[in-house]
Specification:
CATH architecture of the domain at 74-150: Ribosomal Protein L15, Chain: K, domain 2
Radius of gyration: 30 Å
Helix content: 10-25%
Number of strands: 6
Oligomer: single chain
Shape: elongated
Length: 151
Amino acid sequence: MRLNELADRPGARHTRKRVGRGMGSGIGKTAGRGVKGQKSRSGVAIKGFEGGQMPIHRRLPKRGFNNIFAKSLNEVNVGRLQQAVDAGKLDASAVIDVKALVDAGVVRRALDGVRVLGNGELKAKLTLKVSGISKSAKEIVEKQGGSVEVI
């Protein structure tokens, strides 16, 4: 294999179809768009139009809603907390809250709070101050002698 032998896989590149270049080309005059009308003009897209029939997005009923009060929480597993403690990014003796997790790089940005989940193993004794914690995660933390405060 030499540099002059490099090439794309067959069919990877397509040459542009040059339309409207004379009658002899086979795609001249109307350039494959048929005859006059809205769809032969540029910048037209009639999405969802079904020829006057009631469109499907209006035939079907509306369903569901967006809860404007829903909280967006960061999810952190206890195994990830242990990783941060092992790496020396989290101080196990201090209170671990959202600010401490952001500073340690465990979560990228503080949303509406942090919820701790019980995936992974924990060896350190931690004091957590979080928005939520799963039952299994609470058992894991308290088994190590740590404490949890839900705010």
